[in-house]
Each structure stands twice: as structure tokens, then as C-alpha cells.
Amino acid sequence: MIEHNIQIKNIYYMLSYAFKVLQEDGYKHLGSEEFKNTADLFAAILIQGVSVQLKRGLTKEYIEKSEELSFLRGKIDVSASLKKNSLIKKRLECIYDDYSVDTSLNQIIKSTLVLLMKSEIKTERKKNIRNLLMFLEEVSIIDLHTVNWNVKYSRNNQTYKMLIGICYFTVKGLLHSENGTDVKIMDFLDEQRMCRLYEKFILEYYRKEHPELKANSKEIDWQLDDGIDNMLPVMQSDIMLEKGTTVLIIDAKYYSHTTQVQFDKHSIHSANIYQIFTYVKNKEAELKDKNHKVSGMLLYARTDEDIQPDETYQMSGNQISVKTLDLNVPFDDIKNMLDEIVISNIAQL
């Protein structure tokens, strides 16, 4: 079975770039800790993050409640009162708004903490989670399988962004055992979610560590003769690095196989190479400046396969590279690899 081997601590570093709050002083000690698995890592982050949020105060919302009361509160639900014969009991079914901490965001956090209690994490972390749950007694536990993760953030709940992000990775990375009582976490998250984290990490790394570059995830316009773009797909780059007249477009790929195999012959994924070539040529045409030099790179996360792509091609006047990034080495080595991409592809072009 082909796998991505990733040091757990490197997942923390990747998350710390994706969620900048993890670079703050309160979280820095996590960078020197040892973790049993990714569940243990996520538990440590949530314990610290929820502790900080409790000091700030849990977010509250007005939540509509319906309750049978002996006094009037809000408005009377006449239909429900008659159905329950509330008047006979000298009570009323009332509908009212309650300013409560029992919000969807707090429910996600509490339910994720409860889920982590059943997983293979350190005993000390389970004790810390129990202590946190005491402060969340007014918050309901929900079915995490039904959560809508498309959360809209505002000034009032911006501090929840990282917490919900970690909850998302935790929930999506957990697998229930057959008896439904114990929860085990996958060694790594599924390909789709790890791919998104991988892309975000690389982009935020360049934004933070290379301020001399303009690092963005830009949409590239189709260069059309007649301007008609009906049904054409959006060309959204993962990472675009710009400096002066030099542009490097990076497509980050997190696949179970870094190459495709046909008749025992390894080759680069055809769709990937066509895609990066199309991005480069359209970006070059968009600039309409012969002094600009646009290059492209497919940057695969390294697997344990024997054959890993490491090639550079000259295609129709542009350089297209295919490289791999090893995530199973000390993080300083990962930084060196990412820095070398800048040295090789930005400075020399």
C-alpha cells in the first residue's frame, strides 16, 4: 500500500502556517511536544484554544426556544398549549428568544471534545478535556455527521475560525470502530482534506517567510480571441509567486501516487501537466509583456514510492518543473526545500 509518511509534528507546523493564531505565544510550546498520533495533536491544540476562548467568553446568540411555563414569557403558542392541555395545568406553551451559549459553534467544539475523549490520546489530555467540559454544561452535544462546515465568520466570532478548522480536521479524520464505543484516528486525513491543508501551508509559508515576494492564490483569465467564455472552467492557481517581472505558478498536489503507470512505464499525471501548462501560457498572454518570464511547477507531496518525479522541461518558451516535497523529514529541511524553490525559480529567471 502506498502511503504519505508525515511526521506528526510537521502536521502541527503546517497547521500553524494555515492558522496563523497557532504561531502566537500561547501555542508555541506545542511545537516542542511529542504526540501519540494526530488525534493527540488536535486534542492539544483544542485544549489550549478552548481555554483561551473561555477566558475571552463564549459566543452567544439569541436562540428561539419553546417551553411550557407557569408564567408568560415571549409569546404564547396557542396551538401547542391546546394540544398539551396546558391551560388545565395552569401553564402556557411559550415561544421566546434566549440569549444563550448553546450556539452551533460551541456545539461543534463540545461535541468534538467528547469525540476526542473516546480516541487514543494521552491520559493527561483526557483529564484536561473533562475540566473544559465542565464549563460547557449549557452547550448541547450534536451529531457531528450532520454539521454544515460552511461557517460564516464575523467580528464577533472571528476567534472561532481556527477552533472550528481543527474540529473539522478532527471529525473528518476520525473513524469509528465496529462496536461504536472506541474511536481511532486515521494516521493521516483523507487525500482531499490533506491536499487543501498542503496547498494552504505552502501559500502561507511563502507569505510569511518571503515578504520580498507577492504570494497569492490568483485566478487566471482565459485569453480568448472573441471573449466568449461560456462553460469554461475557472483557472484558480494554488500558489502564485511574483517578483518584478518573474512569475512562478505552483500547483500543489497531494496524491496517493505521484506518477501514473501504464504498461510498467511511469509518467507524470497527464491532466496535471496539461493544467499547469495551460495556466502558464494564459498567464503569459495576460501580461502582454515580453519582459515577463512565467514558469510553472507541479509540487507533489512525496510518497513512499520508489520513483519520484524530479524533472524540469522547457515548453514553448516556458519552464515547467515537476518536484516532490518530503513531509517526513525535520521541518527545517522542509523549509530549506521551499526556500530552494524560490532561489532556483525566482532569482535565476
UniProtKB/TrEMBL annotation:
<keyword id="KW-0540">Nuclease</keyword>
<protein>
    <submittedName>
        <fullName>5-methylcytosine-specific restriction endonuclease system specificity protein McrC</fullName>
    </submittedName>
</protein>
<dbReference type="GO" id="GO:0004519">
    <property type="term" value="F:endonuclease activity"/>
</dbReference>
<keyword id="KW-0378">Hydrolase</keyword>
<dbReference type="InterPro" id="IPR014407">
    <property type="entry name" value="McrC_bac"/>
</dbReference>
<keyword id="KW-0255">Endonuclease</keyword>
<dbReference type="GO" id="GO:0009307">
    <property type="term" value="P:DNA restriction-modification system"/>
</dbReference>
<dbReference type="Pfam" id="PF10117">
    <property type="entry name" value="McrBC"/>
</dbReference>
<dbReference type="InterPro" id="IPR019292">
    <property type="entry name" value="McrC"/>
</dbReference>
